[in-house]
Amino acid sequence: MMMMMMMMMMMMLLLLLLLLLMLMVVVVVVVxxxxxxxxxxMARLFLAVIPPDDVVEMLCELPRxxxxxxxxxxxxxxxxxxxxxxxxxxxxxxxAMNRAVLPASVARVGPAIDxxxxxxxxxxxxxxxxxxxxxxxxTDGLGxxxxxxxxxxxxxxxxxxxxxxxxxxxxxxxxxEFAVTEVALVESQLRPTGSRYTTLTTWPVPSPxxx
Length: 211
What we know:
Blueprint: H1 2-32, E1 43-49, H2 53-60, E2 70-72, E3 80-88, H3 90-98, E4 106-109, E5 114-116, E6 120-126, H4 129-138, E7 154-160, E8 176-179, E9 182-191, E10 194-204
Antiparallel strand pairs: 1-3, 1-9, 2-7, 4-6, 4-8, 5-6, 6-7, 9-10
């Protein structure tokens, strides 16, 4: 009798272990292969300010001929990032930004083209700190990437490979100022030739005169 009870207990334990193993397999499959539509909902996203035409024209006057190890970003891709979210659900980000209180902002580009780190040639942009903070607060908890601890406004005009020497453009003067009219939610699609940006939606920013 005792032997039969022990055998029954062992069989129950084995059954429980088998059930736990099956549950772990299901969890792994769901995480790695989300239900249809859930994975498709995620996209590589960032919130940004798109410079107006006069600023684009000013930056287009810079010498932008590609050099060895230096690839200039096309003007239609220029932007000042407020927050890079990584992979996120566009609908969730849009819902969060619909509730955001965006402050009036005046962006000041310049005074000269500079290097940001070792891989980016940029036009510095001041005046967007409060707007970036509002975007970060509104999208708290969204995206696979945390916000940077400190905000540095800039428009990337060229990307530089390790060891490449950037000639002519770095140090050139550039100066422009514009009132920000909207914040854009942009999808970034990685391509062999570089990132392709698509604006998904925008939110108006009050003008300084009416804020």
